[in-house]
Amino acid sequence: MPRKFGVYVSEDIARELEKCMATLGVKSKSRLVQEALRYFIAEHRWRLGGRVAGVLGILYDHEIGHADEELTDIQHHYLDVITSALHVHLDERRCMLIIVVRGDSDRIKKLLAEIERVRGVLAAKPMLISG
């Protein structure tokens, strides 16, 4: 059974929403809110536990400390959840590491926490879906 509730937004968000709806041809705010909530739930459900799949995107400075070696060592401890990894050289100092993962979300949370503690890691972004 559908449930109804009200949502209050600031004027600037309301204006942006109207522009997006017009540009995309979306006619129903209810549909739009439902889709936004589905995306929110899909993006954050993995934090609640269970099996997940997705990628961890890591940006790091390989000139700081021994970031390359530490990140490689960490990956070797999580081979049970790491499916694949891609290393991209962005410039003379910065690298991007894409790690494809699948498995228990608690184990992947530990992997992410270890990566975030590495000196030289500038950003670590999980993009995970429960399933």
Give the amount of beta strand, in percent: 25-35%
Give me the number of helical elements. Answer: 4
CATH architecture of the largest domain: 2-Layer Sandwich
The total strand number stands at: 4
Shape: elongated
Query: CA-to-CA gap between the ends?
Result: 25 Å
The helix-strand sequence is HHEHEEHE
CATH superfamily of the largest domain: ACT-like. Chain A, domain 2
Largest sheet, order of strands side by side? 2-3-1-4
Give unreliable regions as ranges.
none
Provide the structure class: alpha+beta
| Mean of residue pLDDT values | 92
Under CATH at level 1, the class of the largest domain stands as Alpha Beta
Instruction: Please indicate the count of domains.
Output: 2
Largest sheet: 4 strands, antiparallel
- Helix content, binned percent: 40-55%
Please render the helix and strand layout as text.
Layout: H1 11-24, H2 29-44, E1 51-61, H3 67-77, E2 82-89, E3 94-104, H4 105-116, E4 121-130
What key attributes describe this structure?
single chain, 131 residues, alpha+beta, Alpha-Beta Plaits, 2 domains, four-stranded antiparallel β-sheet, 4 helices, 4 strands, 40% helix, 31% strand, elongated
